[in-house]
Specification:
Distance between the termini: 17 Å
Shape: globular
Bound molecules: pyridoxal-5'-phosphate
Oligomer: single chain
Radius of gyration: 22 Å
Helix content: 25-40%
Number of helices: 13
Strand content: 15-25%
Largest sheet: 7 strands, mixed
Structural class: alpha/beta
Length: about 450
């Protein structure tokens, strides 16, 4: 039951379901037949649904909106990009300018190629790693997510796993993913360098790539140790394995140079999307010259919509702002304020918790010490969060119902947003605790 009116969204759902599977364009946007939201518009850190309900948004489209929705500066640049004409099956000047900016912000990005989505950039990275090494297999980290392509849509079944029976089984996220890919994939828990070493010792001659999100943007922002990354970097060099750092969520969000800057590690190949154009569709595959030069020298990369003039113009402006102003530091400060205030509310109620990841991309973990891998995460109790999220939605605070998704902050989250969020968080939490205590509906308030 929701206490908001979702009459217009629900009526639209009944129409949309007739033409769109689940009534939406991504499975993750379907929240149930009577809770799926349809957005009228977004501005800054807020959005409005078809019923006129206003929300302070901490999902931000899973991260792209780093400056806030419909940022005037980026929209003006995008309009100029529109005048350029879109796509031509030819290159434009701005590609160099944006690539040059990325290279200066991220030292590992010696060369850059643009795609449209994060998925495409990661697919290209994997192909390039194989071409470079002449090997086919690759390593994924448990709890990671790299996009909607068959080679990446695999996960380690940690949730129903019994440690005594060895490693968790590798499962496809989707029907239709060919089982044959499972023969190419190894999966390891984060932060266990010995596992990586043992794996490389046995299979290093057939492994092309190690793919990792050092701050897991799809898994409570669980974070790699600096030493772990150093060890992995060293092992990749030793065994001729390409280190792919997927910065689709962390890139241009957690630092100007992404998670690589924060952790002092340099990838062979890295991928960016989301925050780089404040929501306009563009992604980048970047990396070492020696590997990237294989593009055009045996390796195919392209696509009709790559280097679209609107997205490039938006990326150019967004990156200029992130690079030349203290925007990211300000977002982190706001994120810390929010963490502190929410932390106090939880502590006052004796709820063990900690924050994981980065203040601009915060995981809320219900245990006193942060998880070191997905295996820790599945052993915690998320009952409170699961019940809390819908209550927050009813009060106009939009967080992801899936507790694995971090809370994202943008430059438009101002003091007023934080104050309102904290007040409503406390209200929603008390309601949630009451509901959990009285599951039969006999609330203390009655
Ligand atoms: N890599 C990571 C780390 C992601 O979080 C995502 C999407 O959430 C992707 C890749 C895929 O990006 P896209 O959804 O733009 O295809």
């Amino acid at each position: 039951m929701t206490t908001r009116s979702l009459k217009a969204s629900n009526a639209h759902f009944q129409k949309a379901i007739k033409r769109l599977p689940l009534g939406v364009s991504s499975n993750f946007r379907y929240w149930g037949d009577d809770r799926t939201l349809y957005v009228k518009r977004g501005k800054g850190a807020r959005l409005w649904d078809l019923d006129g309900n206003e929300y302070i948004d901490y999902r931000l489209g899973y991260g792209p909106s780093i400056l806030g929705y419909a940022d005037d500066r980026v929209n003006e640049a995008a309009r100029e990009g529109m005048e350029v004409g879109g796509v031509f099956a030819l290159a434009t000047e701005l590609e160099y300018q944006v690539a040059d900016r990325i290279s200066k912000m991220v030292p590992a990005a010696e060369l850059v190629r643009f795609s449209v989505s994060g998925t495409e950039a990661v697919m290209a990275a994997l192909r390039l790693a194989r071409a470079y090494t002449g090997k086919d297999e690759y390593v994924l980290v448990e709890g990671g997510y790299h996009g909607v392509f068959s080679e990446g849509l695999w996960y380690a079944e940690v949730e129903d796993w019994d440690e005594k029976e060895g490693d968790p089984e590798l499962m496809p996220y989707s029907d239709g993913v060919p089982a044959l890919y499972s023969h190419l994939i190894y999966s390891v828990p984060l932060n266990d360098p010995n596992r990586v070493e043992r794996l490389f010792k046995r299979h290093g001659d057939t492994i092309a790539a190690f793919m990792v999100e050092p701050m897991m943007g799809n898994c409570c922002a669980i974070t790699a140790d600096r030493q772990y990354l150093k060890d992995v970097r060293w092992l990749c060099n030793k065994y001729d394995v390409v280190l792919i750092i997927d910065e689709v969520k962390t890139g241009f969000r957690v630092a100007r140079g992404g998670v690589q800057e924060l952790m002092g590690v340099s990838a062979d190949l890295c991928t960016f999307a989301k925050a780089m154009a404040n929501g306009y569709p563009i992604s980048a595959l970047a990396g070492k010259q020696e590997i990237m030069r294989l593009i055009g020298d045996g390796v195919v990369h392209g696509g009709t919509y790559t280097g679209h003039s609107v997205s490039l113009a938006a990326a150019n402006k967004t990156l200029e702002i992130l690079d030349e102003t203290p925007t990211l530091a300000n977002i982190a400060t706001t994120g810390r304020q929010l963490r502190d205030a929410i932390g106090k509310i939880l502590t006052r109620r004796g709820i063990p918790h900690c924050f994981v990841g980065h203040p601009a991309m915060s995981g809320l973990f219900f245990a006193p010490t942060p998880p070191t891998s997905y295996r820790d995460w599945v052993n915690t109790d998320y009952t409170i969060y699961d019940a809390l999220a819908p209550n927050l939605h009813d009060l106009g605070i939009l967080v992801e119902p899936d507790s694995r998704e971090p809370w994202f902050l943008c430059a438009a989250h101002d003091e007023a947003c934080v104050t309102e969020t904290v007040t409503k968080f406390e209200q929603a939490l008390d309601l949630t605790l009451d509901q959990l205590k009285h599951p039969d509906g006999e609330s203390a308030a009655n």
